[in-house]
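re: ur question from earlier - yeah i can do the single chain one, its not a big deal. heres the input i used so u can compare w yours
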Amino acid sequence: MTMTKRRTETSRAPARRSAECGFRPVARSAEHGFTSFVRSAEHGFTLVELMVVIVIIGLLTTIVVINVLPSQDKARVEKAKTDIALLEQAAEMYRLDNLSYPGGGDGLKALVSAPAGVDTGRYRPGGYIRKLPDDPWGNPYHYVSPGKHGAVDIFSYGADGREGGEGNDADIGNWK
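and the output i got, formated as tokens:
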């Protein structure tokens, strides 16, 4: 009996080995009814997996767009205010050097180069500003001298490019 007992003990399956001992499970092929532990590059992704990823990317894009677009509008309004303050400062320097603001006919161009009829000895070499900026919506800034709200009015008509408006379409000027 001891002999049969030994045979049954030796015929048993070996004890499971753990990953700690260096055991790696054998990947068996699908034809034997097993799926592999490691997905090979040949198998690719299922349609469901791709759809889940596309939906997640779409949701993230929507969240970013909703949060970024209002910031862009605010940034454009702030840039217009900054440009107007810069142009107003240049017009004030022109007035200090030439004893008057640029005429309405000369407009803001008088800040870049000396207009006809101005004493070139008093006009600052290189002008008062290097280049006239356009407003953030691609339109030129407007200049009125004498202004309705002050000595000079420098303004942008806003996003719509027309006088008046509310929100992003509101006029932005040096009087506000």
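The first strand starts at residue 142 and ends at 144. not sure if urs matches, ping me
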